[in-house]
Specification:
CATH class of the largest domain: Alpha Beta
Number of helices: 3
Order of helices and strands: HEHEEEEHEEE
CATH architecture of the largest domain: Roll
Low-confidence stretches: 1-23
Structural class: alpha+beta
Radius of gyration: 18 Å
Distance between the termini: 41 Å
Largest sheet: 8 strands, antiparallel
Number of strands: 8
Number of domains: 2
Mean pLDDT: 88
Strand content: 35-45%
Length: 155
Amino acid sequence: MNTARNIVLAALTLSATLAAHGSSDKRITASQLPAPVLAIAQNETKGAIIKGYATEVENGARVYEVETVVAGHTRDLQIASDGTLNEIEEEVQFDSLSEPVRTSLMAKAKGARIVKVESLTKGGKLVAYEAATVRGTRHGEVQTGPSGETLSHEE
C-alpha cells in the first residue's frame, strides 16, 4: 500500500515539476526565425521537406531547430541565434555502419531493438552515432563514438 502511494506521489511531483518548467521545445514558424538562422536554414535545406521549426534554451543560449526529410531520411539542424550551425543529426541505415559501430551500439542497447540510428555532426566533424531503442514499451537512446569507441561524455 505504501509503495503504491509513494509511486503516485512521485508521479505527481514529477508532473508538477515538468508543468512548472514547461516544455523545453517551443514550436515556431519560419517567419519567427532570426535572419541569420533563416539564412543558414535556407542554405542547408535545399531539396529537403521541412517538417517544422522549434526553439529552446540550451546551456543558457537560445538555439533553433529545423526538422527536415531528405531523400526519405531525417536530417535535423540545430542553429545558434547568430547563425552558427551547431549540430546536424542525420538518419543513417544501420547496415551502412562499420562493424565496430554496429557492435558497440548493439552492446549498449543491451537486447533492446534498435529502431533508428543518426549520425551526430558538430562543427563539421562526425562526433557520434546515436541509436533509438525500444524494449517492450520502454524507449531509450544509446551513443557510441565515430569508430565504435565509448564516448567520454554524451553528445
